[in-house]
Design brief:
Strand content: 25-35%
Radius of gyration: 20 Å
Number of domains: 2
CATH architecture of the largest domain: Sandwich
Distance between the termini: 51 Å
Order of helices and strands: EEEEEEEEEEEHHHHHH
Helix content: 25-40%
Number of helices: 6
Structural class: alpha+beta
CATH class of the largest domain: Mainly Beta
Largest sheet: 6 strands, antiparallel
Length: 207
Amino acid sequence: MRLAISTPGLFQWVDLTEGTLVLGRSGSCSVTLSDPILSRQHCAITREGTRVTCSDLGSSNGTYLDGALIERADLVHGSVIEIGESAVLLVLPTEELPGDQLSRGSFRNPDRIKALMEDLSNDPPDPSGLETVPIGLVVDNQDLVDEVIVDHVINELLKILTHQDPGFRDLLTRSIDRALGDRILETCASPNELRSRIREILEKERT
């Protein structure tokens, strides 16, 4: 699998190996893009076997899949991720390049998609190079993972702190204190149970 990445003034192919690639402005990202609209760690693309997913990392301007805003979504051959002024296309080595599909799609930045189509025409993937040249650094160190998590938490806290309703901020603050005090992370056996417990706490704090 490969990613075709088109940014202002640059086109590149990146091999998508098993693991996670983080895309953003930061030099610590797996793939650093010179796009001023991107967040430092903007999104993550993860490959687990044949499954590929894209997750927004709390970016300021959002991550879009085929024109729709997403937080997390599965990708298939021909999926187009738009972040900032950049576009990322997932390409499978066994499939034809999705030129017609791109020309008919509905995207946030049609000019960037047009540039991506031209780049694909001028620089098609080399079949002999697929799966062999790992250009991006797969996330396998805890420091980078921690940095991504901290950035995400900061963005979420900013949303809470800048909310116009003081009562809403107080509600979330009390709920977080209650969740930590009840040690629900240690007692919940699944993400669904954790979400259910957090909802219960929010409802109790509202009353």
